[in-house]
Amino acid sequence: MYMEYTNSMILQYPLIFSLVATLAKAHGGSYFKPYSGKVLVSVSMVKSQRLPRPLDCAFACVKESHCASFNMAKSPVKGRYLCQLLSENMTTAVVKDSTVFDHYHRITPGPCQGLNPCHNNGHCEETDDGNDFRCTCSLGLTGKRCESLPWIQFTSSPVCFGSRDSRFARFRVPTTGFLSSIKLSRVSGYISCDLNNPKGANFWGCLDYEGKPMYLNTIITDAVDRIRMPETKHFTSMREKAYNIPGISPLSQDLLFPMMDTPLNVYAGQYLRAWFGLDFEDIELFNEGEVCVLVYGLYA
């Protein structure tokens, strides 16, 4: 059962409990949704105690396995707050208005709520019992959290491509097989499609005058300049060789090309090229810069 104080015991200015949710969540994975001026009634009380700080009530509930919510006095009496730990919450018991208490509904987030436990833009799904998760991985990633990817390093030292004058980066494929994706990992440099844009410096494409991503523009061709990555379906403008990849921007340190529907048949010793797309199309009047990268390949 609950107990209310008389109005004479209420301080003029109630305390603000904005930190309760944050600290309780950090302490035990749970957090509390506050309901100001409410009290939960007609429930079995786990424990009633007077505590020196409001936050102590939240921590006490987190530590108590049977605590589903708590009522806490708005104001202290003789320096202590009445804290009622309850075995039920708003889904199973009655809440009514109160001038003395605030009620806090305990919520334990599922494994897919909050920060995504799946790395590299993997999709998180809870198991049927809600106690665990599974990740659906993209780009050939493996591992419980999509953390592993069997990339093969193609270049032992950086290769560089420029923004104009057909300055592509040339690299050699070390292994025969079917290539599903290529990753370019930036080592140094920048590139821009508008030298008059003070916020245009990036690594893989174009930014607007506010420094916001417009599109990716870096492509992979073979030795006779047939475009191999990305596949045609990804381009939003063939003229500018513009495209977008979810989770990757012109400012990302790594450019991972989308997995190919039909992996590219390559042979050991074959040369491929990395281009700035506008340079490839000879749209280069306002381009500037050079980016140096390490190249990795992912085989099917």
From TrEMBL:
Covalent S-S links between cysteines:
118-135, 137-146
> What InterPro entries does this protein's entry cite?
EGF (IPR000742), Pan_app (IPR003609)
Q: Which UniProt keywords apply?
A: Disulfide bond, EGF-like domain
Under SMART domains, the record lists: EGF
What is stated as this protein's family in its record? Belongs to the EGF domain peptide family.
Ranges where the Apple domain occurs: 26-108
Alphabetical list of SUPFAM superfamilies matching this protein: EGF/Laminin (SSF57196)
Which species is the source of this protein? Answer: Nematostella vectensis (Starlet sea anemone)
Q: Which Pfam families does the entry mention? A: EGF, PAN_1
What is this protein identified as? EGF-like domain-containing protein
Q: What is the lineage of its organism?
A: Eukaryota, Metazoa, Cnidaria, Anthozoa, Hexacorallia
One example GO MF annotation: Notch binding
* Source domain of life: Eukaryota
- UniProt domain EGF-like: residue ranges: 108-147
